[in-house]
Design brief:
Strand 2 and strand 3 form a beta hairpin. It contains 7 helices and 7 strands, in the order E-H-H-H-E-E-H-H-E-H-E-H-E-E. The protein has one domain: Gcn5-related N-acetyltransferase (GNAT) (Aminopeptidase). Helix 1 crosses helix 3 and helix 3 runs antiparallel to helix 4. With about 200 residues, it is of the alpha+beta class. The protein is about 40% helix and about 25% strand. It starts with a strand and ends with a strand. It is globular and about 45 Å long.
Length: about 200
Amino acid sequence: MPITPAASSDLHAAVGCLATAFSQDPITEFLLQAAPGYEERVTQFFSLLMRARLPLKMPVLVARGSSGGIQGAAMGYTTARPAWPTDVSDDWDRFEAAIPGLSERLAVYDGIAAQGKPADPHYYLGVIGVDPTLQGQGWGAQLLQSFCALSAADPLSSGVYLETAKASNVRFYERAGFVETGRGRLGNAPLWCMYLPHGQR
């Protein structure tokens, strides 16, 4: 299960994989609202996130199958949070303005996350997803381990922080050593904040 840094040429395939993986995720449904045009919004959302991170050299990892196809992806931030490239930032502003209530829902999400984030510098795992037809085969665990290894190798990082809105994911992350640091609600869905401090695998 080779896990490698993503290249710009991986954008389309990785975004397609993530859009499929997150099409029924409570966070995505809360933010982007499962209504007509939802699938297109989900694809645009992940495309913007990846387009921002690649030129900034932020962690973007892909899991490649034996044929070289992308089976999953993970991306986030190091301890630094640089400003997005201007073109992507402008595209995001247009995306956010086009979806009624998105700004307010993002504020709810960010408010919960702010309470659960550790004070010490850390890596943020914003997205991790695997093709739904391949779940349970270890791809997600490999992506998670690879992302956490990047953080562990960075002397500035105290650990890895993330959020999830699925109880099954909570158990998955707990098995990897993550602990809950906070909880809130996104509409009808719970949101768990979780953190893996280094040295406690």
